[in-house]
Design brief:
It is a single chain. The protein is α/β, with parallel strands linked by helices. It has one domain: Alpha-Beta Barrel (TIM Barrel). It has 12 helices and 9 strands. Helix 2 (30-43) crosses helix 4. It is globular and about 45 Å long.
Amino acid sequence: MSRIQSTFDKLKQHKRKALIPFFTAGDPDPKLTVPLMHALVEAGADVIELGVPFSDPMADGPTIQRASERALKHGVTLHDVLDMVAVFRKQDASTPIVLMGYGNPIEAMGWETFSARCAEAGVDGVLTVDFPPEESHEAFAHLTKHGIDPIFLLAPTSTSARVERVAKQARGYVYYVSLKGVTGAGNLDLSAIEQKIPQLRKYINLPIGVGFGINNAATALAVAKLCDGVVVGSRIVQEIENSTEKNAVANVSKLVRELRQAVDKA
């Protein structure tokens, strides 16, 4: 059983919802990435989505774009991100880590090499934003061969055919993008999410996490009532951006604790 499945199974047994924070590896400085990962866990994260910095992150709004730019200025590569996960694993053998990014760096490394390195480092899942399921055959084969969960996105505009395909190929959990637009966008429509999730569950047996546009505790609570996990990215990255290197870990910890308390009320 994968760490992701085990985590969601335990949460379900205790009637709790997953809190899944995201931040970009190497932001604001590579030396803070592993401390931030441990701080997220201590503050109540169930799964960590770790962003791989990329120069043209098409699905990300300005906040996460700037995070990638800061990380890239430090020269952070996909190799470095995998090394960071390996260091994290020396102290934490149980928290699932999902790499979230784009296809170019993985294609440059090669899917077989990448998948093997993920397994060695202790990565549990990979979400490649610009690889729809129809184009993920090679990726799926290599990831699953090495025990890595391929995680896919679904959106308000996803067709029934796309949902069915994702249901067949996805492992771990499915990430539902709660709104049309990039990360950090506003105008979250809770009623639309409430209508959509039951439709997805007709096809999908995996846990469903919801992200994009969740920027405070109240919204996290409202979304948690509708799904299995709440993904918070831009708000956490914004906290990092507004902090100094000295207080970034403490500030992010405080924010995630607030989110954890809210999600637990669901």
